[in-house]
Every structure is written in C-alpha cells, then in structure tokens.
Amino acid sequence: MARILIPTPLRQFANKQDTVEVTGKTVGEALTDLTAKFPDLKKNLYNDEGKLRSFVNVYLNDEDIRYMNKEASPVADSDTISIVPSIAGGSAQADGRCAR
Amino acid sequence: MAEVTLSKDEILRYSRHLIMPEVGMDGQLKLKKARVLLVGAGGLGAPLGMYLAAAGIGKIGLVDFDVVDFTNLQRQIIHGTSDVGKRKIESAFEKMADINPYVELVGHETALSSDNAMEIFKDYDIIVDGTDNFPTRYLVNDACVLLKKPNVYGSIFRFEGQATVFASEGGPCYRCLYPEPPPPGLVPSCAEGGVLGILPGVIGLIQATETVKLILGIGSPLVGRLMLYDALNMKFRELKLRKNPECPVCGDHPTVTKLIDYVQFCGVPHQEGPAEAVAASGDIEPKEVKARLDRGDKFQFIDVREPHEFQICRIPGTTLIPLGELPKRVGELNPDVELIAHCKSGVRSGKAVDFLKQAGFKNARNMKGGILAWSDKVDPSVPKY
Predict the structure, then answer these.
(1) Tens digit of pLDDT for each residue in B326-337?
(2) Which CATH number does the domain housing residue B307 bear?
(3) ipTM of the complex
(4) Does an H or E element contain B352, and which?
(5) Residue B339 lies in a domain
(6) How far is B131 from chain A (nearest CA, A)?
(7) Closest residue of chain B to A90, computed from CA coordinates
C-alpha cells in the first residue's frame, strides 16, 4: 500500500492523521481511496467539476504529477504521495484575517 | 559608485567571514555592496533582519506599516516587550542598528501595492518575501518576475514551513507552483491556525541563508526545489519545482505583463474586517446579550470555538459545540428556542448561524465581534488571545 502525507491544514478532515495508507494503481485511484475514507477531504481537494483544485499540488515522491501522467501516474507500494497546499503565513496572528 | 572597502573596525567585525576562503574579502565586499529588501517585519522578517544585518549586507530595506503588539512577542524576536506600541520599522531598525551600525537601513512604511511595488523594488537586488497573505505573495512574485529579481520565499503554518527561491533566471516562479490562490474560506483561517513561535525562526533563517548564498554566488541555491519542514516530526523534505511553460507571468506567452489588482485576484473583499465580513441581519451586540442574561431571558447560548480555545477563556453559561461538530450535534439544540452563537471574533459563529438557519433554526443569531468584543465591551476580565 502506498502512503499519502496529509498536510497540517487538511488533517482536521482526515481524523487528525498525518499519514494515510491507501490502495490504488494510480495517483487518481489512491486519492479516490483517500476521499472514500475521509469524505470531508473531497471538497478541499476537488472542485465542483471533480478536478483537482489548482492551489493543491500533488507529488508522487519528489515529482509534481502535473509533469508526469497527472492522476494517471502509476503508483507502487513503496511510493509516497504528498499533498502540498499553498500556505500564506508569515506570522499568523489575527482572527479571520491575517494581519501582519 | 565609489569603490567599496572595509574599514579596520569592519575587518575585525567580519573576521570569521574573512578567514573562510568561500567568503573572504571579495565575498564580504559583495555583501556590503548588496541591497536586500525585506517585505514584512513579522515572524519571518525578525530573524532575517537580525542575521542579514549581522552578516554585513550593505543596504537593507524593510516594508511594513504595522505596530508591535503583545501577540507578536511569542515569535518576532526582533521586537521586545518595551517596543509594544512602537512602529515595527522603528523597533526593528533600533535592534538592527545596534547589531551592526555599518548597515544602511531604509524604511518603506506603507502597504505594498501594485502602485508602489515596482518603484520600491527597483532599488534592490534581492527581494525576501516574509508576508502573510495571498494578495501580497502574488504581488511580490509578479513584481520580481517583471523586474527579473530573485524572490526568496518562505511561509509557515502551525508546525510546517515551506521555503524556496523563485524567479531566479531560468527557475520557476510562485505562479508556476500555484497558478491561483485558494478561494477565501476554503483554507483554515488564522483563528484556527496559529504558529509555533520557533517555526518562523527556522524558515526565516533558511531564507537568510539563501539570500547570502545568492549574493556570494556559492553553493547550490534553493532554485527549482521546494523545501518542506515539519517541526513536529523534525523532517525536511525536498520536492522538485519546474518552470511551467504555460505560466501566465513567466511562461512562454505571458498574459500578465504588468501588476494587477491582487486583492481582487485573490477574491478577498476590500477592507475586510473580521466582524464586518459577516455583518448581517440577526447580529446581536455583546452588551445586549449581557442584558438578556441579566434579565434571565431564556435562550440557547453556544460557543463554536475549539476546546483548546474554551480552555483559554469562556463566557459563563455557554455550551461548547465546535463549528466542525455542529452538523453532528445539532440534535442537542432546540430549533424553537432562540439561539445565540459566538466564537473568537464572529466569523466562525457567522458560519454556524448560516448553517443553523438552513437547519430550521429561525431564531439563530450571531454575537457580533465574538469573545474579543465581549472582553472589550462587557467584561474586561476575560483575557484576549
């Protein structure tokens, strides 16, 4: 089983886990398995058309899947998939709004 | 420019650099000739400003318009307790000038915008991004690409940080990595965020290291590589970053050829304030809630913050139901009895009220300004955080 690393902002939707073991022969299947386990992750990873959101990057080991076969990229059991969302913080502080 | 040299005092000061062949006199003079702009004097800017001043960078500019407050001191080590209330630029420059009086310090006390970014950036060789919001991040990126200046990037969230060098000749830019920002609301707000005070030190010093390496031209720069740091598991990971030929700003056929309205691009309402963002009919003032409690009015009073926030402070008589648990626990509440919800500042409780109204709670109201406003207007003994 490959593993998916869950970034801090999304752990609240994955039962607070930082790593999830998944099945699937491709990155797409692995992510489908992940969202089946944790349905709350779905809207954070995919838009209404079912496409991966543009501010969420997915890496297979150290390579961006956009430069591989995207979600069809094949996955081996020893592989690590990383979800890397954009974060803006330089000094997170205020409530609701990020003041410096 | 007149020839740059080191005085006898400077030679003594930089002796541990001068005796390393990788820096030496040539390298120290490169540092002295260098002009570096720090955007933000916050968590990342604090260690950056101190170490870059100590290293002997000739000119350091700082963009910031904020004032030091108590919540900054947990991580912004360039400011001290006696600086609370001072302008951050003033406080930072006092510390930096004390560390190294040979550095020229230039303050830009303004909000960086599309109108002033090019003018401010043009006098510097390297831009270091220590901001905390998406509009400024995209603005800094685009201005750096347009001016062909390297952008030394760092960002932090809770226990995790990211760092890389963008827009260096041939390398990818921020938009190659993330073409678009997340829509507001989908990313956990700062209220649910927080940050380990030490984390910006680690990430800020990766940025400072890369800045010095770029100036000296030594080592392999963090270009085309995204460094991820996980403080909890103490792990560094490195991902490959590629230049996107279709990038709207640095690709083969750029569509962004001048600075745009980044606030609009990021979908952030102009001049958003925490309370105003959700100001809607049905809001109730903290004073009115207090008056009702004193009168003994019957209503359900719920606190939708997280349990660890409830431990910091609470309003007596409230029931804790964190926003994320509300859908599961809505059965504990009576839709026929009036309900007032509060959180820290009014944003999350606004969402709670929206959800409850859809669930049939016609008399659900949001306490305006949250427990912060309660502390200001009703009970100052309630600590703010």
Answers:
(1) 999 999 999 999
(2) 3.40.250.10
(3) 0.84
(4) helix B347-358
(5) yes
(6) 5
(7) B132
